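Q: What does the assembled structure look like for these inputs?
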Amino acid sequence: DSGVTQTPKHLITATGQRVTLRCSPRSGDLSVYWYQQSLDQGLQFLIQYYNGEERAKGNILERFSAQQFPDLHSELNLSSLELGDSALYFCASSFRALSTGELFFGEGSRLTVL
Amino acid sequence: GIQVEQSPPDLILQEGANSTLRCNFSDSVNNLQWFHQNPWGQLINLFYIPSGTKQNGRLSATTVATERYSLLYISSSQTTDSGVYFCAAGVSKLSFGAGTTVTVRA
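A:
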């Protein structure tokens, strides 16, 4: 158990819909990272938050947004879903910000868009 | 961003065999990690190794930061070692390689 909690574990929805994925980092970790794993793109970095502020952005679509709340949990919002958004979405946490530090991953949220 | 290349892409081993997985990265990094993704999709931390050598049981890893590569050694492989091994490297964020799929046969 990495200490990073993600919910839901599985989610099935339809095209055009909106979903929210939730992540609670390890106790004491200030940074949260979101990654997307799809069959054709591999593991892609989406976005990082540190202590409530956006710190780095990767290949995140405009239809996707994220935030980190004062209690340090984070949510990834995916809207106007398309079939190609079906993927495993991972959250990771670390203590540090700029130098990343060791990342610990949650078990992921598997999203299926039908 | 940093490019991470892993080799070989696939590896089939007989139980008890030893193997070496390689990770090359395109620029200086201050973070390098090895992960094992099990058949259930979980990413398990193996090593945090931006430089030097570490060992954990039958697994060990070496990173030569000046030459921009890292090696993961699996000794006396077991069927439970099967899965995908990822190398990830970076500075402010981790970039993942495409992974090495390891299949250990009994």
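DSSP finds no helices and eleven strands in chain A.
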